[in-house]
Amino acid sequence: MTDIDIPFTYLIYGTGAIGTLVGGRLGASGCRSTFLVRPRHYDAIMQNGVHVDGMYPNTRIQAPDLVTSAIDAFDDRKIDVVVLAVKSFATQDAISDLQHALEVTGHKQPAILCLQNGVDNETELKAAFGAQNVISGTVGTAVSLTKPGHAKVDKARGIGIAKGAKQASRVADLLTISGFNIKLYESAAAMKWSKLLTNLLGNATCAITDLPADEVFAHKGLYSLEIRALKETLAVMRRLGISVVNVPGTPVKALTTAIKWLPSGAFQNYLGNSVAKGRGGKLPSFHMDLINGKPQTEVGWLNGAVATHGEEVGVRTPVNAGLTRILEGIVAGEIGWDVYRKQPDKLSQELLGK
Question: What is the pTM assigned to this prediction?
Fold first, then answer.
């Protein structure tokens, strides 16, 4: 593959698991990928390279192109696409950083491929960079970062890309060439909200109670919380006029049909096993953040987004609002984790009102 075949240069903004995965595969497939890395990780990644394991073929970029600031990237390179893969709570900082770098360097506005979880990041990005320049995406593949620059694919599923934005089709083609299963969507909202449904499963409840997914779904009260959270989300989606669609590798429509029509206990074991296996054995993101003592959490952009949009359209969402309140309180140190840790009855009784 020649440079003529690959006209785009990518800036990977956020080199966690998803950024390393996508940038590593693009770079190994012949695309020009520049990784924006934290200064403390620069030497280690430069020495060891960028690796993606567990996806055939395994990937290694021995001499990756690294920068430690957006200004450095835009000053010395023609960046066509920024792959935004930071946590949702860092979106506004990323926007300010990119705007400043573009202004200082005079670089032409690149496309922004948003691969973040949550349903509101694109709204902020479009306001900052123009709707035509923002490509909405979602990553279904379960991937973890074993160390800086080294991503491990736990379960390969694919990437969703919404149509409509300038360069969306070309970006989708190049991701396909890079080995990803790509699915195109007419509606960005349907894609992002449907992915949100999967992000909610066994996430906040696992973190708050410090229990693995199989134990959460085996507990009658916590399982009821999980189903209530999903039903609240579906009610908000209906009020907003947003359809449920399957996301790459995940039959979301079958899940929501089962929730709507089957007795909740009919698929309790199946759902618990599916969530646990679907993550490839790794802990959910909120749980890992708490264990690792992270000072921030994305719960406000996931469960919290359901509660916020529900309030806007007149749909009650007490379970999503409660999970958000409690987990944010634990992360902020306002609520002791021991209040709920290993106490599933307390959490379920508090939020179910029983």
Answer: 0.93
Edge-to-edge, what's the strand order for the sheet holding 50-53?
Answer: 59-61, 50-53, 150-155, 142-147
| Measured distance CA(131)–CA(165) in Å, rounded | 7
Reply yes or no on domain 9-186 having CATH 3.40.50.720.
yes
- pLDDT 10s digits, 56-78: 678 899 999 999 999 999 998 99
Query: Could you tell me which of 280, 238, 344, 293 has the C-alpha nearest to residue 17?
Result: 280
In the CATH scheme, what is the homologous superfamily, with its name and number, of domain 192-352?
N-(1-d-carboxylethyl)-l-norvaline Dehydrogenase; domain 2 (1.10.1040.10)
Secondary structure (H, E, C), 125-166: HHHHHCHHHEEEEEECCEEEEEECCEEEEEECCCEEEECCCC
Residues 14-66: tens digit of each pLDDT: 999 999 999 999 998 888 999 999 999 999 999 999 999 987 678 899 999 99
